[in-house]
Amino acid sequence: MLMALVAAPLLSCVTRAPIAEIAIEGVTLVDAAGESRSDQRVVTLGDRIVWVGAMGAGGPPASRVIDGRGRFLIPGLWDAHVHFLYDPELTDAMASLFLAHGITSVRDTGGDLERLVELRSGWGREGVAAPRLFVSGPLLDGALVVYDGATDEQPELGTGVPDAPAAREKVRWLHDRGADFIKIYELVSPVVFGALVAEARALGMPIASHVPLSLTADVAGPETGSMEHLRNIELACASDWRSLLEARRVRLRSYDAGRGYELRRELHESQRLPAIAAYDADRCRVVLASLRQTMQVPTLRLNAFNRSRPDREPQWWSALEALPISVQDRWRRIARELDDGDARSDMTFADWSLFLVAEMKAQGVPIAAGTDTPIRLAIPGDSLHRELELLVRSGLSPREALFAATLAPARFFSLQDEMGQIAPGMRADLVLLAADPLLDIRNLRQIEGVMSQGRWLSKAAE
Ligand SMILES: [Zn+2]
């Protein structure tokens, strides 16, 4: 019942907590890129870590001391794939849910830019504790748009980019209005994809992308900084990838009356399982080798949903109670309906996704933790822990999973010198744990306190 323990004091104290020197003393530091160190002292001032060293080795005094003895300190976590605007009934609840679960930074990978920027500046104006929010603005889609706002399940997260001039103009517009990166979606043409990439590079913006349906992962991936959901990699890894791609391109050209969402679904439904059945290990090694500089965000909790239903976990039900009542009611109803359709669930894509992450690890492909919350019953915060557990299940060590939720997303934004480790000069985002996450990744749920941008948000460990 993390929420009951952490969320209430967190919310009651956040606006009053002064930003001052804080020392966390006697704690074991857990480093995703190095060795753990016990009996340490960490001092923060405002939004910076100013000193780290062994207990007894000195360092500046602090006006407030947090007892870290017997506890473990990690850098604040990231959820690298989030949609704040997917469910309007949940938007306002998300920031505090993330913090309560130790997530101090999030990457919003698709939604209306002006609303997201307003959300972010509203937190700053009102002094509300919230994660650092990095936004892409809308999904940049093709002449047809998958998320066009036609139904509640397909809210208007996307925008159409019909040609190269429109692509360049759109990226400049996003840049000028505060987007931190761009997110390319599945229905862009190869020409539009190239123009989006070129313009974003010229402006110094990182690029996240689904593999467009008209391209393959080994062609599109190296042009981008991150790829989402392992989507369309199954096609690139199939022995008959050429004929599958050609069939795709013919269909994309001929489809002129209908919705983008339907077109994408038709292509996935007709090609995904045949492509997985035609998996070619040699071909896939070549594809994965091309992705060694491209962070992969597998969203296993989404891809492996049928294999690992969240509503089968007691943890999910207790975390659900922190959501707005209307969302709780709706999600309980959805969970019941899932049970009715359960016998027909196909596990192929779930198992293939878990398998592919292990292959990526073996090939040295960088992996980051993202959830797609709140899509498909993903509770903000809780779902990141679920994702990390699934990354470990697929073959990552707990330390590699921690890396995936700290340094990997920081690197996407070239922020590895500021975030993702506990060292002087780094930003003051920290999570204090009751147990060692390297022994069991589930120990990341045992949160005793969270520091977000220099603010200490829990009274539990004082
Ligand atoms: Zn998404």
Q: Topology of this protein?
A:
Blueprint: H1 2-13, E1 22-29, E2 37-45, E3 48-54, E4 64-67, E5 72-75, E6 77-82, H2 91-100, E7 103-108, H3 113-126, E8 132-135, E9 139-141, E10 158-160, H4 164-176, E11 182-184, H5 190-202, E12 207-209, H6 217-220, E13 226-228, H7 233-236, H8 241-254, H9 260-277, H10 281-289, E14 295-297, H11 300-303, H12 314-320, H13 325-341, H14 348-362, H15 382-393, H16 398-404, H17 407-412, E15 430-433, E16 447-452, E17 455-456
Parallel strand pairs: 1-4, 1-5, 6-7, 7-8, 9-10, 11-12, 12-13, 13-14
Antiparallel strand pairs: 1-2, 2-3, 5-15, 15-16, 16-17
The structure holds zinc ion.
Zinc ion binds at residues 81, 83, 109-110, 372.
Report on this model:
There is one protein chain. It contains 17 helices and 17 strands. It has helices at residues 2-13, 91-100, 113-126, 164-176, 190-202, 217-220, 233-236, 241-254, 260-277, 281-289, 300-303, 314-320, 325-341, 348-362, 382-393, 398-404, 407-412, and strands at 22-29, 37-45, 48-54, 64-67, 72-75, 77-82, 103-108, 132-135, 139-141, 158-160, 182-184, 207-209, 226-228, 295-297, 430-433, 447-452, 455-456. Strands 1, 2, 3, 4, 5, 15, 16 and 17 form an eight-stranded mixed sheet that branches. Strand 11 (182-184), helix 5 (190-202) and strand 12 (207-209) form a beta-alpha-beta unit. The longest helix is centred in the middle third of the chain and has 18 residues, at 260-277. The protein is globular, with a radius of gyration of 22 Å. The two termini are 19 Å apart. Mean pLDDT is 93; it is low at 1-19. It binds zinc ion. The site of zinc ion has 5 residues, from loops.
